[in-house]
């Protein structure tokens, strides 16, 4: 998977490298994300920008930590062969202030929380969800936890 990363309104840091590591781990944990043809746009931005995107595209007038905008359905992704031109899987946007606040509340580093949200967003782009049923949520959380373990990040759902 190729990442097109844009960083605005985030503190200085190795966000590019973090995103690349998270994407590689996600591809190792969800085989559909390992296709070399896939491209993902990843935006590290402000709460204000994510708030505007959330309002415009989801009808929710508030910021959130991460937004994912898939451009392929899961069936299309599964049918995509490894050879051919690049294919846009989708877009992800991370809101700095919300991510930083959540990391502080959880007692984890911003790096670890951002990696978790990148993995979460990539799984959404691959067709995983957590809103329709508890079983769906448990499956997605287990996949996230396994992927994050590959990065040496503790289970974010362990209460």
Automatic annotation (TrEMBL):
Zn(2+) binds at residues 120, 124, 130. GO terms for cellular component: cytoplasm. One of its GO terms (molecular function) is zinc ion binding. One of its GO terms (biological process) is rRNA processing. It is an enzyme of class 3 (hydrolase). Its cofactor is Zn(2+). It is found in: Cytoplasm. Keywords: Cytoplasm, Endonuclease, Hydrolase, Metal-binding, Nuclease, Ribosome biogenesis, rRNA processing, Zinc. Its EC number is 3.1.-.-. The keyword rRNA processing applies. The keyword Nuclease applies. It comes from the Bacteria. Binds 1 zinc ion. Single strand-specific metallo-endoribonuclease involved in late-stage 70S ribosome quality control and in maturation of the 3' terminus of the 16S rRNA. Belongs to the endoribonuclease YbeY family. PANTHER family: ENDORIBONUCLEASE YBEY, CHLOROPLASTIC (PTHR46986). This is Endoribonuclease YbeY. It comes from Erythrobacter sanguineus. The lineage of its organism: Bacteria, Pseudomonadati, Pseudomonadota, Alphaproteobacteria, Sphingomonadales.
